[in-house]
Amino acid sequence: MTENIAQLEAHRSALMGHCYRMLGSVVEADDAVQETMIRAWKSIDRFDGRASLRTWLYRIATNVCLDFLADRRRRFHPVDEGPAGSVDDPLEPRPRTHWLEPIPDAEALRADADPSELAEMRESIRLAFVAALQHLPPKQRAVLLLVEVLGWSAAEVAESLNTSVASVNSALQRARATLATRNITEPAPMSESQERLLEQYVDAFHRYDVDQLAALLCEDATFCMPPFSLWLRGPESVRAWLLGRGAGCRGSRLLPIAACGSPAFAHYHPCPDGTYKPWAVIVLELSGDRIAAWNSFLDTETLFPRFGLPMQLPEQCLHEREIFSQDR
């Protein structure tokens, strides 16, 4: 029994990545993986070994996710819901279950993956890619992921989803056509200039140099703060926000974390008693040597524990950890 559990658990991170891509939520992905493990455990005696254990688990996980999606709406990213707003627009929150969520790299990436596989897996959990996947109907999403990310043949996918090869090929064609309209660019490996960009971002944030922060953004950069539906476009709008309604972030500190295969930070806000409280998980998307998207996820009660982050930090602890991470 113990050996069987260990064999199943060895695939947990791979399954988390797959379920996250399907569902767009780290919380729901965790629930889906738990259900996958339960179903696998109950039927392990019927595993005939014709496919690998991982492939068998992916089949179960895919069908679990399709069951989940049968009675759930897709997850949204603010920039996909409507036009860019202005700094004077009202802040209208939506429920946590409405929004796309970031995922810790440690939960979604296999520790034993080789460098090339690791790079592919990081790309597949990027916010831009997962957000684009949410525009696909669940079955198309499953087909695309099984073929494009996991490298399955149409016949393997058809068997897994209990459908025909023709149906799989048709779904794949439609899914590819939809994603082509989303203008998703493939990121290059982090360059030295991008490493410097992130250092400049952290330094400017700590000094609250708003002009410098705006200068680091692309001309069409986006800025959003789920659970609020408001999002902004362009350096001037972001600058106006940071100097106006966002000025309360002055004095905050950032700690490097790993999320969605992208540069990310835990944002802590100063308190009157000298401690710092969680404010946001920030995920940045880069384009060349500029920031293309600044995503601040404010659901700290859900997200900080997922990243193993404390809900309060003393000032001295932040000073000890604020040196820029070298293992990004």
Keywords:
328 residues; alpha+beta; Butyryl-CoA Dehydrogenase, subunit A, domain 3; Nuclear Transport Factor 2, Chain: A; 2 domains; globular; disordered C terminus
Short summary:
The chain is an alpha+beta fold.
Q: Tell me what the CATH architecture of the largest domain is.
A: Up-down Bundle
Radius of gyration: 21 Å
Main beta sheet: 7 strands, mixed
The chain-level structural class is alpha+beta
Give the helices and strands as they follow along the chain: HHHHHHHHHHHHEEHEEEEHEH
Provide an overview of this structure.
This protein is of the alpha+beta class. It folds into two domains: 150 residues, Butyryl-CoA Dehydrogenase, subunit A, domain 3 (Up-down Bundle), CATH 1.20.140.160; 130 residues, Roll (Nuclear Transport Factor 2, Chain: A), CATH 3.10.450.50. The protein contains 15 helices and seven strands. Strands 1, 2, 3, 4, 5, 6 and 7 form a seven-stranded mixed beta sheet that branches. The longest helix has 18 residues. The C terminus is likely disordered.
Topology, please?
Blueprint (H helix, E strand, L loop, with lengths): L1 H8 L2 H12 L2 H18 L9 H17 L35 H4 L6 H10 L2 H7 L4 H12 L4 H8 L3 H16 L11 H16 L2 H6 L1 E8 L6 E3 L1 H9 L9 E7 L2 E9 L4 E13 L2 E8 L2 H7 L6 E2 H7 L7
Parallel strand pairs: 1-6
Antiparallel strand pairs: 1-2, 3-4, 4-5, 5-6, 5-7
